[in-house]
Task: inverse folding
């Protein structure tokens, strides 16, 4: 037991260093993606930016797609957590259109403040591994948003509520992706998106 406890204590600093190194690699990967885009993103460039050997990078990440997957998860987590934090208030919202406006504005602002988001969103549409990972997240969000919808419209059948949740999530994601690619049209597109989602949710009042 004494040897195991001593061994565990010794593992602490090593694990901490591993986390620091992983974060260092991810920060460097973000910068490479911002500077060089998806076409210039590779493990050699990331290792050089991090000041590490490629061998060290491969000790933490399998390949460049593994790096992109982790970067994408970290990037999306900020927006997903925001959605999770606000679904509980949906049933009590008095001004539905204003609530939709505020949520979409916040999601758009998150994307603008996270420098690698645009490149990562492009990767999510092009890299099979990322497409699969995003689909898993979308499945979870569809269920979450379906429950949110039923909290306000309890007569909506569960399957319909989940389908509405999926439709809203994927429409918002696609439109915000497009707005990111065309910043001059972003504000006008988001306004149309607000009107569309507001009207779509309002029709659930018929149940």
Result:
């Amino acid at each position: 037991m004494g040897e195991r406890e001593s061994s565990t204590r010794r593992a602490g600093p090593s694990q901490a260093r591993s986390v620091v190194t992983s974060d260092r690699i991810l920060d460097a990967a973000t910068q490479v993606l911002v500077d060089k885009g998806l076409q210039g993103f590779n493990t050699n460039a990331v290792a050089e930016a991090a000041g590490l050997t490629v061998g060290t990078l491969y000790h933490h990440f399998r390949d460049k797609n593994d790096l992109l997957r982790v970067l994408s998860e970290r990037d999306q987590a900020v927006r997903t957590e925001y959605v999770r934090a606000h679904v509980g208030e949906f049933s009590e919202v008095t001004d539905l259109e204003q609530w939709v406006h505020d949520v979409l504005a916040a999601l758009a602002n998150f994307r603008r403040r996270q420098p690698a988001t645009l490149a990562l969103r492009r990767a999510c549409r092009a890299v099979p591994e990322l497409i699969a990972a995003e689909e898993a997240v979308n499945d979870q969000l569809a269920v979450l948003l379906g429950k949110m919808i039923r909290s306000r419209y309890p007569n909506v059948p569960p399957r319909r509520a989940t389908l509405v949740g999926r439709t809203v999530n994927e429409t918002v994601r696609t439109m915000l992706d497009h707005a990111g690619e065309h910043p001059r049209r972003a504000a006008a597109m988001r306004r149309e998106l607000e009107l569309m989602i507001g009207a779509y949710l309002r029709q659930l009042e018929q149940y």
